[in-house]
Design brief:
108 residues, mainly alpha
Length: 108
């Protein structure tokens, strides 16, 4: 749960920034998926107790994951609008945003 709280703090920081960094959102999504997988593995190994303990862990994880997915869709919507106004494909702008974020340049 402490690791989830750290990820939620990262998410809040991203939301408060001037632009949403696509690669940072994707990284956060991967981290949330890893936490969910870890929780399911621990549950399967009998380390978490009953079904209610698993639900208590998965509920906030799934909510955070859904929130990140919503932010990624927001970035995609912005890219679609930009692509239309610039006469480019969304895929080209998406790839450029990922490349730019991967080199530390931020997102569009």
């Amino acid at each position: 749960m402490l690791e989830l709280a750290g990820l939620e703090r990262r998410l809040a920081g991203m939301e408060l920034s001037a632009t949403l960094d696509l690669e940072a959102l994707a990284e956060l999504q991967r981290d949330l998926l890893r936490l969910k997988t870890d929780a399911l593995d621990r549950f399967a190994a009998g380390e978490l107790g009953g079904q209610s303990a698993l639900s208590d862990l998965l509920l906030p994880l799934n909510a955070a994951r859904d929130h990140v997915a919503g932010l990624m869709l927001h970035v995609r919507d912005n890219l679609e609008e930009r692509a239309e106004s610039e006469g480019k494909s969304v895929e080209a702008l998406w790839d450029a945003a990922i490349d730019k974020a991967g080199t530390g340049g931020g997102s569009p």
